Amino acid sequence: MPVTHKTLVKSKQGSNAQSQQKPLAAKTAKVVSKKKDEDDGTEIGEGGDEWMHGKTLIKPPDQLDLTEAELKEEFTRILTANNPHAPQNIVRYSFKERSYKPISSVDQLAVHFFLEGNLLHRDSDEARRQKAKQGLPDEKATVVTETEDEKLETPGGGEDGAHSVDSKTGKKEQKLTNQFNFSERASQTLNNPLRERGCQTEPPPRASFSATANQWEIYDVYLEEMQKQEKNKEKAKAVPKKEDDKGKKKLTLVETQSDDLTKVAKVAKIIERMVNQNTFDDIAQDFRYFEDASDEFREQEGTLLPLWKFQYDQAKRLSVTALCWNQSYKDLFAVGLGSYDFTKQGRGMLVFYSLKNSTYPEYNYPTTSGILCLDIHPDRPYLVAVGFYDGCVAVYNLKEERPEPVYKSSSKSGKHTDPVWQVRWQKDDMDNHQNFFSVSSDGRVVSWTLVKSELVFTDIIKLSLVGAVSEGPEGVPPPTMACGTSFDFHKQINYLFLVGTEEGKIHKCSKAYSSQFLETYDAHNMAVDAVKWNQFHPKVFISCSSDWTVKIWDHTIRTPVFIFDLNAAVGDVAWSPYSSTVFAAVTADGKVHVFDLGINKYEAICQQPVVAKKKTKLTHIEFNPVYPIIIVGDDRGYVTSLKLSPNLRSKPKEKKGQELPRGPEVEIAKMEKLLSLLREPENSKGRTESWCQTDYGPQALDFRR
Amino acid sequence: MCAEVEETLKRIQTHKGVIGTIVVNAEGIPIRTTLDNSTTVQYAGLLHQLTMKARSTVRDIDPQNDLTFLRIRSKKHEIMVAPDKEYMLIVIQNPSE
Question: Which residue of B has its CA nearest to A363?
Answer without folding.
Answer: B4
